[in-house]
Write a structure and sequence with these properties.
alpha/beta; 6-stranded parallel β-sheet; 16 strands; binds zinc ion
């Protein structure tokens, strides 16, 4: 089979790789239906994470089950499945507490930009759809494996409630999905922070009520202006930079909450400032597995259409161009078709 391998910053190649095989009885092998490039894939691509040796890439997937290990009984070959970027047994104490992305048997997916993928912990990770979904649903179902589930978690962690005001920091795919989540969870006012016209347009389509283009102190001041001088009830931090975290913490009202889902890079939080702010802070890798059944239903019901974050579709063998387009911000998110 073939798949994407990163060799160095800016150097992603589509190469011949060994076919994946069942290693554990809890594994499954799927044939990729569609996959994609994640904003977090850009960290190593831009040299912000070290690349010690060439390695496969990709952690978002939907596909058709090809083969299952002996302990995988809830899905069978031929079924269409979705799973999280973090695998889980869905039964351990952390899974039962709703933190499947911190499963004691967790393995992060990392080989999904390929024709076939081995899914560890398939018994707890994969969710099958009732039937083969129509082609039009594939982008949205794919989005559930990471960005939509992550946007959902950001909104949950920030405790978005009906009638509340939410701010979304970050206009990448996760931020835009955060807007969808805030809307679905009943936020009355959703302030999207974005300075890119095409992303602002999508944010408004997804339910944002206000757009703030300013950043830093000006951005914080603008949010305060829009929220009676105190800040928002809930702020979704969907970037992972120090500036984004500061923006989030200082845009939240006393007693409000920040949900942070951007993978932090050189982010530090000032303990004194956090203490005196009365802002709640929770985040981490999203427990996507727990949200999948609900979110799959919302996609098939037509309530949500997170697949719209894909504004570039390429054949999988052009994965390198998919990275380049996102790196240069010509694309929000690249969908890849094997
Ligand atoms: Zn578990």
């Amino acid at each position: 089979m073939r798949g994407a391998v990163i060799h160095a910053p800016g150097d992603v190649r589509f190469e011949e790789l060994d076919d994946p095989k069942i290693i554990q009885p809890t594994d499954a092998i799927i044939r990729t239906a569609v996959t994609c490039v994640c904003g977090s894939d850009l960290w190593p691509y831009r040299g912000a994470e070290p690349i010690d040796a060439p390695h496969p890439m990709g952690h978002e997937y939907v596909g058709i089950v090809e083969e299952v290990g002996s302990e995988v009984t809830h899905v069978k070959p031929g079924q269409f499945v979705i799973g999280s970027f973090a695998t889980s047994d869905n039964t351990c104490v952390n899974c039962r507490a709703g933190y499947q992305s911190n499963c004691v048997r967790r393995e992060f997916m990392s080989t999904c930009q390929a024709d076939y993928v081995r899914i560890p912990n398939a018994h707890g990770t994969l969710v099958a759809t009732d039937e083969q979904p129509a082609e039009e649903f594939l982008p949205s179902l794919l989005a559930l494996s990471d960005v939509m589930g992550t946007g959902w978690w950001a909104a949950k962690a920030a405790e978005v409630k009906p009638g509340s005001t939410a701010v979304v920091v970050g206009d990448g795919a996760v931020g835009l999905c955060g807007v969808i989540a805030a809307k679905e969870l009943g936020a009355e006012r959703i302030i999207a922070m974005s300075r890119h016209e095409s992303r602002q347009k999508l944010a408004l389509e997804f339910g944002a009520t206000d757009i703030v283009t300013e950043r830093g102190d000006e951005g914080i001041a603008r949010v305060k202006d829009l929220t009676g001088g105190v800040g928002a009830d809930s702020v979704l931090e969907c970037v992972g930079t120090a500036q984004a975290m500061e923006q989030a913490l200082r845009s939240t009202r006393p007693g409000g909450n920040v949900g942070f889902v951007g993978v932090p890079h050189e982010v530090t939080v000032d303990g004194q400032e956090l203490f005196f702010s009365h802002v709640g802070l929770r985040g981490g890798p999203a427990p996507v597995r727990g949200y999948l059944p609900d979110l799959i239903g919302r996609v098939f019901d037509g309530r949500i259409n997170p697949g719209k974050v894909f504004d570039l579709t390429l054949p999988l063998d052009q994965v390198a161009e998919g990275y380049k387009a996102m790196d240069e911000r010509r694309a929000i998110k690249t969908l890849l078709k094997p």
